[in-house]
Amino acid sequence: MKHTIEEMISAAEIDQKLNELAERINAHYENSERLLMVGLLKGSAVFMADLCRRIKGHVEIDFMCVSSYGNAMSSSRDVKILKDVQSDIADRDVLIVEDLIDSGNTLSKVRELLLVREPKSLALCTLLDKPERREVNVHVDFVGFTIPDEFIVGYGIDYAEKYRNLPYIAKVIPQE
Ligand code: PRP
Ligand code: MN
Ligand code: MG
């Protein structure tokens, strides 16, 4: 698709938002012994790198990679684990770190998959939230920006694997 991109959220605005998010997360986990941040690959890699460096105290990081695909026979979606976390999450405070919530399918399935392992607590953090696109209701504890239903890229988020390296978030604008 022929397109152009247009900056929507600057690197400075992201930086400022990460400070606010980290402040809230640090306050929430003040008494936590071993917080585990779990990033969902690939989109969250950039956000995770910047966010975890602002978290105080003992924190560990891990990653999970899932792929979702529609099931023609029903309206529900299956989520396949391509890479699981390496850590044992039982009895840990777990914070899932995601770049973007769209339909909510990815996060709600990951939440279900992790909850059966009986973490001490399980919370969700997303940099971007598109509530207009929600198909599955999922409670998000920490939200960076709530955005309208625009096609966005950058800061880890791709369009056909491109633009993950942009230091800012941009809108994709289709041409003719
Ligand atoms: C994107 C994004 C979220 C997910 C959100 O990931 O990074 O993980 O989609 O969509 P949902 O709320 O409708 O489930 P994608 O599957 O494109 O993989 P990627 O992170 O590797 O780009
Ligand atoms: Mn993703
Ligand atoms: Mg993607």
UniProtKB/TrEMBL annotation:
UniProt keyword annotation of Cell wall biogenesis/degradation present: no
Cofactor: Mg(2+)
Example GO molecular function: guanine phosphoribosyltransferase activity
GO terms, biological process: GMP salvage; guanine salvage; hypoxanthine metabolic process; IMP salvage; purine ribonucleoside salvage
Every Phosphoribosyltransferase domain range: 13-159
E.C. designation(s): 2.4.2.8
Main EC class the enzyme belongs to: transferase
Subcellular locations according to the entry: Cytoplasm
InterPro entries in the cross-refs: HGPRT, Hxn_phspho_trans, PRTase-like, PRTase_dom
Pfam families attached to this UniProt entry: Pribosyltran (PF00156)
Keywords: Cytoplasm, Glycosyltransferase, Magnesium, Metal-binding, Nucleotide-binding, Purine salvage, Transferase
Keyword Transmembrane helix: no
Listed GO CC annotations: cytosol
Catalytically driven reaction(s): IMP + diphosphate = hypoxanthine + 5-phospho-alpha-D-ribose 1-diphosphate; GMP + diphosphate = guanine + 5-phospho-alpha-D-ribose 1-diphosphate
Pathway: Purine metabolism; IMP biosynthesis via salvage pathway; IMP from hypoxanthine: step 1/1
Protein family per UniProt: Belongs to the purine/pyrimidine phosphoribosyltransferase family.
Function statement: Purine salvage pathway enzyme which catalyzes the transfer of the ribosyl-5-phosphate group from 5-phospho-alpha-D-ribose 1-diphosphate (PRPP) to the N9 position of hypoxanthine to yield IMP (inosine 5'-monophosphate). To a lesser extent, can also act on guanine leading to GMP, but shows a highly less efficient activity with xanthine.
Protein name: Hypoxanthine phosphoribosyltransferase
Biological source species: Shewanella amazonensis (strain ATCC BAA-1098 / SB2B)
Lineage: Bacteria, Pseudomonadati, Pseudomonadota, Gammaproteobacteria, Alteromonadales
